[in-house]
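Recall that a protein's primary structure is simply its ordered list of amino acids. Everything else, from secondary elements to tertiary packing, is in principle encoded there. The following example makes that idea concrete.
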Amino acid sequence: VRELQSRYPALLQPEALAGAFSTLPADVKLVNSQHLQQAAYQSPAKQWLVVAGWPCQDLSTAGLSQGMTGRRALLLHDLVRIIGTLQQLQPAQPPAYLLENVAFQFHYSQR
């Protein structure tokens, strides 16, 4: 995040990072709606930016290729749950998000 901030200072201002890594649990499986409500209450007028990825081993040809049913790939569901909760908490200013993984995730059924 700091690298992005140094490259794009006008788009990612320092105050956007204030408390970015201290308010919520680091493990997305542990983040619940109470955590998000408390964090949203602390900065009600701020738009959220969710930047996340999930392990690629279940989707990659270099891994076990279990697809979206693999244990690691299931973390995507937690990310979607978090983004959905944020959308409900701030409907007038929904979160921006950037999710990344391997390109193979879109072609798993064609294997």
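The longest helix spans residues 75-89. Strands lie at 49-53, 96-100.
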